[in-house]
Specification:
Keywords: Membrane, Transmembrane, Transmembrane helix. By secondary structure, the protein is an alpha+beta fold. About 25% of the residues lie in helices and about 35% in strands. The longest helix is centred in the middle third of the chain and has 40 residues. About 0% of the residues have low confidence.
Amino acid sequence: MLVNVDCPVEWLDHELYKSKKNGNVHCSLTFNNLSQQTVKGLKVIIFCYDQFGDPIDMGRNDNGFEYEIEFKEGLPPNCKRATDNKIVLSGYQNTRKIEVDILKVLFDDQSLWAKDTTESEKVELIKIENRVLLKFVQERAGADAAYFARQTQHRWTCVCGRLNRDTQPNCKRCSRGKEDVLTSYNDEATISHHLKIRKQKMKKMMKYSSYAAVVLLVVGGVFYGYKTKFTFSTVEDQKVREVLAADGIIDTSFIASEGSDGRGEFVIKYNKNGVVKNKVISDTTEPRIIDIDSNGVNEIVFTYTVAQSDQSKAQTFGWDDIYDFDIVKEELTFASSEYPDYYRNHYMPVLKKRSAESNDPLEKQALSVLLQAAEGIIQGNFIPDANQKEITLLMKANESSANPLKISKQDNTFYIQGVTLGMSIKEAIQILGEPNETFEINSKVAIWYLENDLKLTAEYAVAAIHYIDLGEFDQKTLEQSRKSLGEPTEKGQKNFSYITTTQALRFHEMVEPGDFRVQLMAPDSP
């Protein structure tokens, strides 16, 4: 990234867009106003680079062009904003990365800043890739902290990514202190050390809080005993024992609801400030209660069903998430990333055993994705979420790679990209979106151009689809899709058919060797 430490405006980021109509590449630029005046316009040079990071030379011995940017509403002080309009990178269709150098800044009072003799510097920022460490840094320093702080000759880089003069005690962008960021966030080892200290402090706080609660409750219990001359009934004795317990979970229970497929109410009985309470979590599966880190405090593990391929003969796949019970907030808190040992010692061995015993290639591949995610938690480069969004995305990505044509079978019905025979064209449009082409010959035809250069054609009369084909694809894609469907009903040298009582799914080679197409039609079609 190009940075001029003297410029009152800084370029932060960009987005690239490609027009489907003419193939032109556009960009939008985001700038941050570091000054105390409103900015009306900028003059910049935009440098264009290809996917290899090489300059795109247009025959002028440079890879950039000048462009004037106007902020119609103005760019206020200490404000960041994207350009009002997208900028056409005319003639630079192969652009995959850009750099921006600011030449002039026009303020609303018509005063001007010009680059003149000042210099722009190339800055290579190092992102904090470890997600656990990144989360810790952002909790301590703020959501914009994403980079390692670095000291170079006459310069230092803040965790927000801003380059500053060595003489500046605070970051020009975010005002963080130089000494603080350089000593706290300069490398992985330093951040890991601070994270470890925080965890130790939290455990000590919990331990001492429990001791203090016990002391107070014992004093209260003795006073109560003195008042009653220590003559407790059995029920009263039980109550006193509960009151004398330290803050924390006393017991847990689970009651399954009738006809709920194993779901029910999970109840946590806990003591807080001498009062015994119940926390009820409704409509949930039965969790496991485990003291993962052997510190005398139990963690709660819920297993969630995650998406799987319809073609797999495997049972459902389970992803485990770990929760702590926060006595102060009196609620479950998501904590999977805090317990890598659970995934190493409990979760992964079960998956590895299941994978070793499986003969289903789709099941083995899905299990490998779950194992990869668990390993990611251990290494700190995968952070799960309470809604299982991240793990679901991984499973869906795996399903797409395992079945790139998205061909599935349910009972006697085949689906191609979610569409099948007898389906109305309106339903197909809901699934695939508006077709790219429509026309009519002997019947009505709709064509969709899909990812990976695939073309799906559907023929329909009135409203119902009676023919579908998808192509063209290579031998590897064919084999991946066939693997999910099993053995064909009919098999030729380059042709494979899967036939049910109502449909026929036929793979065959095109005129060009190595290119294939799949058709879905009535079983008696030629």
